[in-house]
From TrEMBL:
Residues 44-119 form the Carboxymuconolactone decarboxylase-like domain. This is Alkylhydroperoxidase.
Length: 181
């Protein structure tokens, strides 16, 4: 049950309208999360700027896999539907890879290290061990890449928390539970 207003086009604040219109044009429809988030031009535009910047970080398969792992840990069903959809249609990940990412892993060793590290960042609230850091570096990630992973975790957690608080109606295909993790 949605706990905030999902704005109609004529209700969108002027300062949110260009950003929301760009997403709508790019995606082909206005997701409920964005129509709700647009109520705060400050928060919405800050998130959109971060999303735009981080779309250049790492590769799309790794970004989507991190989004799935973070959303699973944070228990965000809305984001799991979104990331499962984008992982399938944009990153071209097969269903078993999507489920594996939700559990904090990947079949590709380098991506696996990034996803495992992202999951540990969420689970430990950033209090990772030296061994955790060495594992992701050992897989070939630079400190700049590790910073990008942490930034992705923060960005995905922001939308996870937003959606967990306001619970917008899901407008992407439902996903099955990941099972025991």
């Amino acid at each position: 049950m949605t706990r905030t207003t999902i704005l109609k086009q004529d209700q969108v604040p002027t300062d949110s309208k260009p950003t929301l219109d760009a997403f709508t044009k790019n995606i082909g429809f206005t997701p409920n999360m964005m129509a709700a988030f647009a109520q705060s031009p400050i928060a919405f535009n800050a998130w959109a700027t971060l999303l735009g910047s981080l779309s250049k970080a790492l590769d799309v398969k790794t970004r989507d896999s991190i989004g799935l792992a973070v959303s699973e840990v944070n228990g965000c069903n809305y984001c799991l539907t979104v990331h499962s959809f984008t992982a399938k249609h944009m990153a071209r990940l097969p269903a078993d890879e999507i489920m594996l990412a939700r559990k904090g892993h990947a079949t590709d060793p380098k991506r696996d290290a990034a996803v495992q590290f992202a999951r540990k960042v969420v689970e430990t609230q950033g209090q990772v061990t030296d061994a955790d850091l060495e594992a992701v570096r050992g897989a070939g990630y630079t400190d700049a890449n590790v910073m990008e992973i942490v930034a992705l975790v923060a960005m995905y957690s922001l939308t996870n928390f937003f959606n967990n608080v306001f619970d917008p109606e899901k407008d992407f295909p439902a996903v099955a539970p990941a099972g025991s993790i």
